[in-house]
Amino acid sequence: MREPRTLGEFIIEKQNDFPHASGELSSLLGSIKLAAKIVNREINKAGLVDITGAIGTENVQGEDQQKLDVYANDKFKAALEARDQVCGVASEEDDEAVVFNKQLNKNAKYVVLMDPLDGSSNIDVNVSVGTIFSIYRRISPIGTPPTEEDFLQPGNKQVAAGYVIYGSSTMLVYTTGNGVHGFTYDPSLGSFCLSHESMRQPETGTIYSVNEGHYIRFPMGVKMYIKYCQENVPNEKRPYTSRYIGSLVADFHRNLIKGGIYLYPSSQSYPEGKLRLLYEANPIAFLAEQAGGVATDGKKRILDLEPTELHQRVPFFAGSKNMMQKLHEFLETFSDN
Ligand code: AHG
Ligand code: MN
Ligand code: MN
């Protein structure tokens, strides 16, 4: 059997593929890897230590913060601050972007945007959760505090993005714009080992993932597409299978591997959609496209949207190319509703 290739080794091997080849991005990904191991350790013993449940506070978006939201947020920020590449972080769990003052005179070129714990309402019931990260080169001059324009860049400017899924095994999946690569954590080695090189999303699939509890409030095009998924057309493998975990990372990861489509449309409860453009939609869209899939807000490519505020929400559709094409046909036909 071949020796496993660890994430650290793989990143160094691939370093020259980066558009801005440097060891700095490798080091930054190293910080994320370290924080992921720490969070993974806590999540694995979630039932044994006092880490489950709500903490009694709300984030800026009015959502209850779970203890693990806050724990993961702190650990990822600490790991990123400990090295010299990142000058600031914007997180779903913080009201404002955090500036790492001590890194400002150290040539720090990058900002990170993240959802430190995605699907956190699942943690108390032992269901997969994740971390999502998105990395940009800063626009403002090195050595000065990062500004709003550094954090509000369109997704097409990402230099790297990825997620960690804390599931039946823990995986880290990332892209730097040269394909998508997945690494499974081997707890006996304490290492993420290459298990899924150059991941490709099947061009079509038979899984649709949506919170159907909100069906009645969805736009007509989405309703009609869901009905299409449910129609009995055996030679087209319909009806499709419905699978919805309620952690974007886990739902996307399954559909990435098996082929499928994920839908979080606008609805009367969430007129702008629920998912966050900068922490969730952009990094997942970058991964989707790099794996041959498609990600849009129903009309436009997610990666081309111009962000206007940090915690902005967006309707989000991502998945296999052919399934997304069919969805868009329905959205166009029923666009008036
Ligand atoms: P978070 O835990 O980071 O707030 O994200 C939850 C998101 C996403 O992970 C998931 O797909 C979606 O919310 C689930 O929303 P519903 O419960 O409305 O289906
Ligand atoms: Mn989330
Ligand atoms: Mn979250």
DSSP summary: helix tally: 8
Query: How many structural domains in the coordinates?
Result: 2
Global mean pLDDT? 93
CATH structural class of the largest domain:
Alpha Beta
Bound molecules: 2,5-anhydro-1,6-di-O-phosphono-D-glucitol, manganese (II) ion
Distance between the termini: 57 Å
Our Rg estimate from Cα atoms comes to 19 Å
CATH hierarchy: architecture of the largest domain: 2-Layer Sandwich
Coarse structural class: alpha+beta
In order across it, which strands form the biggest sheet? Answer: 4-3-5-6-7-8-9-10
- CATH superfamily descriptor of the largest domain: Fructose-1,6-Bisphosphatase, subunit A, domain 1
Shape: globular
Residue share in β-strands: 15-25%
Helix content: 25-40%
N-to-C SSE string, H for helix and E for strand:
HHEEHEEEEHEEEEEHEHEHEEH
Number of DSSP E strands: 15
Q: Any low-confidence stretches, pLDDT <50, length ≥5? A: none
Output the CATH topology of the largest domain.
Answer: Fructose-1,6-Bisphosphatase, Chain A, domain 1
Reported for the largest beta sheet, the result is:
8 strands, mixed
What does this structure look like?
There is one protein chain. It is built from eight helices and 15 strands. It is of the alpha+beta class and 337 residues long. The protein has two domains: 190 residues, 2-Layer Sandwich (Fructose-1,6-Bisphosphatase, Chain A, domain 1); 127 residues, D-Maltodextrin-Binding Protein, domain 2 (3-Layer(aba) Sandwich), CATH 3.40.190.80. The longest helix has 22 residues. It is globular, with a radius of gyration of 19 Å. The mean pLDDT is 93. It binds 2,5-anhydro-1,6-di-O-phosphono-D-glucitol and manganese (II) ion (MN) (2 copies). Its EC number is 3.1.3.11. One of its GO terms (cellular component) is cytosol.
